[in-house]
Amino acid sequence: MKINIITLGCSKNTVDSENIGGHLISAGQTVFFDRPHNDCDIVILNTCGFIGDAKEESVNTLLEQIRQAENFNRRHSNDNRHRTLIASGCLVERYLDDLRTELPQVDYWFGVHQWQQLISTVLSIAAQPASQKPFTAERTLSTPNHYAYLKISEGCNRSCSYCAIPLIRGKHVSRPIEDILLEAQQLVDNGTKELILIAQDTTYYGLDLYGRRRLGDLLNLLATQSGAPWIRLHYTYPSSFPIDAIQSIAQHPNICNYIDIPLQHINSRLLNSMNRGINREETLQLLQQFRNLIPDVSIRTTLIVGYPGETETEFQELKQFLLQARFDRMGCFAYSPEENTPAHSLGDPVPEEEKQRRVSELMELQQAISLEKNEQKVGKIFQVIVDRREGDYYIARTQYDSPEVDDEVLIPATRRIALGSFHQVRITQALEHDLMAELVPSR
Fold first, then answer.
1. 37 pLDDT above the threshold of 90
2. d(C-alpha 242, C-alpha 255), whole Å
3. Over 90: is that where the pLDDT of 51 sits?
4. Which residues are bridge partners to 127 per DSSP?
5. In DSSP terms, which residues pair with 195 in a beta bridge?
6. Count of C-beta atoms within a 10 Å radius of residue 390
7. SS3 423
8. Is the alpha carbon torsion for 48, 52, 55, 60 positive or negative?
9. For 7, what's the count of Cα atoms within 13 Å in the CB-facing half-sphere?
10. How far is CA 430 from CA 58, 69, 370, 399, 433, in A?
11. What's the pTM?
């Protein structure tokens, strides 16, 4: 059977979809990822339910897939073909009863703790026996083969006041180090050159399983045993940050000098209300530690504006912090009230128009910072990995940029370059969020 897996949301969802796809492919099915206007017998939509915009996108995509399934069934009414529509993932986990009532056209619903049942259901539709392998035992990449997300744990033990992730994904569960190493080695053996470590909170890794945080140990082992040329760290958490993880990054040349650390705000009152477990001064000290240990570190963060009670003065403090911290990359979100979270009881007093103004002002500041930082790279030589070709350019990245979310390096396609290959380039021009470059001739 032809099966299309559509993935919304974050890279953690991407890994879940890849594990689903791997099981189905190993059972002899034909699997596509995010195939538009497809002729597939089964569509699996892996939804996101994190914030308001993500929930809206998931619902709209579900409605569109219902429409496409109805059209498909009408076209094939005479040849006994019927499209099965399966909804899964975070939105389903959180709002199953409401969704089932409002969207009866969906054939099956599976939350984030029901992947094995989803796979068994699909195989039963295909008249095949259920898979007996653990969920993480099979995986087929939906990303380009040269980079892959490596999930090191599931769930979250944090209690941020605005966040519904613990309600959806449950408590933090670390994967054993040996399992992670085995998957990493298998990925590298199959051509992966960049491993991107992900979790709901990577800095909590090991505490539940080993009684202490072991992210630094894991990074050391991956750097020395996986064979990966690049290893990248995402989704860290500022409170109780394991500094030995930063020391591991500094020690190993194949770990990218890159840290993704969502800080959300800098005002101590708001950080306390958000239950982040850290204040302004501790945040500034942590950033300074990063830069002391890794002088050329690239720091990516995300910020929230419009949190209940955020005053104009506190927003201006956030703007000044952005100018002071000079992050390499920054994303910004307008606060979204989420049911059953502690912050939901605070209401949503900041008007949406005001939230969007604050988002725009922060993004404009960051654009100027990004342009200035990029201009400092003109004339310098960097190693890049080539992701894809678009028109007259190859699109590449330095170690300081993660795929899909960060800056890219555009190389004129004057000759053929293999995707996934590493090259030395000289930066010739800086843009706000991209760099133009030329290949440095090999000696």
1. no
2. 16
3. no
4. none
5. 148, 231
6. 11
7. strand
8. negative
9. 18
10. 36, 46, 10, 17, 8
11. 0.94
